[in-house]
Design the sequence.
C-alpha cells in the first residue's frame, strides 16, 4: 500500500501538469502573510482561509508548534520574501494532545538513542498557541511582529476561534 500511494501521486501529477498553465506568480506571497499550522490531514488551509495559490507561506509541522525551525522559516519568509503578518493555528483533536514527553523515552527504549529534538507535545491548545505567539513576538530574528495572531480551528465545524495573548486579556499585546 505504502509503495503504491506514491505511484498514485505521480500519476495524478501527470494529469495536473498536462492541464497546468504557468500563472506567472512571483515567489513573495501576494498577501504578505505566513501561516503556521499542524500537518493534520483534515486541515484544508486554502479552503478554510480563502487563500489562493501565491497568497501565503504555509509552514506546517506536527502540532503547528513554533519550533526553532519554524522561526528559521519565518525569518526567511519575512526578511527575504516580504511577509509581514503571522497567523498561528492549532486545532481541536490534535494528535499532540495525547502525546507526552514520555514518547521520547519510548523511542530511546526502542531504538537505543534519544532524539535530539523535543516532542513539543501540549495539553492545552490555547496555552500552546499563546506560547507560540510569544516566541514569534520575542524572536530577535523577526523584524515584523506587530501583526501576530493565534487561533484554534475546530475540525468538526471548520471555524476558527481566536486565542487571546493573555488568558482573559486583550488579543492585542
Ligand atoms: Zn494536529
Sequence:
Amino acid at each position: 500500500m505504502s509503495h503504491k500511494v506514491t505511484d498514485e501521486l505521480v500519476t495524478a501529477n501527470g494529469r495536473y501538469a498536462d492541464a497546468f498553465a504557468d500563472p506567472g506568480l512571483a515567489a513573495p506571497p501576494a498577501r504578505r502573510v505566513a501561516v503556521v499550522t499542524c500537518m493534520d490531514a483534515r486541515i484544508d488551509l486554502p479552503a478554510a482561509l480563502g487563500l489562493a495559490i501565491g497568497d501565503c507561506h504555509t509552514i506546517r509541522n506536527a502540532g503547528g508548534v513554533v519550533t526553532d525551525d519554524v522561526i528559521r522559516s519565518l525569518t526567511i519568509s519575512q526578511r527575504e520574501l516580504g511577509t509581514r503578518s503571522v497567523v498561528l493555528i492549532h486545532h481541536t483533536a490534535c494528535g499532540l494532545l495525547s502525546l507526552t514527553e514520555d514518547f521520547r523515552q519510548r523511542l530511546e527504549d526502542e531504538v537505543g538513542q534519544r532524539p535530539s529534538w523535543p516532542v513539543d507535545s501540549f495539553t492545552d491548545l490555547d496555552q500552546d498557541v499563546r506560547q507560540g505567539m510569544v516566541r514569534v513576538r520575542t524572536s530577535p530574528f523577526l523584524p515584523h511582529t506587530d501583526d501576530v495572531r493565534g487561533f484554534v480551528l475546530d475540525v468538526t465545524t471548520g471555524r476558527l476561534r481566536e486565542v487571546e495573548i493573555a488568558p482573559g486579556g486583550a488579543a492585542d499585546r
Q: What stands out?
A: Strands lie at 33-38, 56-61, 85-91, 148-153, 160-163. The chain has one domain: 23-169. The chain has a mean pLDDT of 94.
